[in-house]
Amino acid sequence: MLQLRGRALLDSWLMGRLRGQLILPGGVTSGELRFGRYIEAVTPLENAPQGRFILPGFIDTHVHGGGGGDAMDGPEGLVTLARFHARHGSTTLLPTTVTAPWEEVLAALRVVCSLKTGRSGLETQARPQP
Question: What is the pLDDT of residue 101?
Fold first, then answer.
């Protein structure tokens, strides 16, 4: 029996199940993934859709922006970029600052820390001024 752990980061309209080709550590298999807030079951299915692939979420370790939002743009910018990346398969990301005056970088880092929901971190490309 295959056991998976993880959170389902999907919209409620999917009604708790996905059918398709499951990309698993042992290879690709047709099946159904059932979930609530977390993954509940993975079941093999012979008649699962062939053109739909279900795989783990991506981790993006260098994100300046996306969807019009930027890591330096305050809470609204950060939420915008996070939603954009989530729609395209990222389940974890590391917001990345740009080289800017240190006060701006610190402000961006404070926003990231205030919105952070997991164990991931952030990346800065700033150099502190003496």
Answer: 92
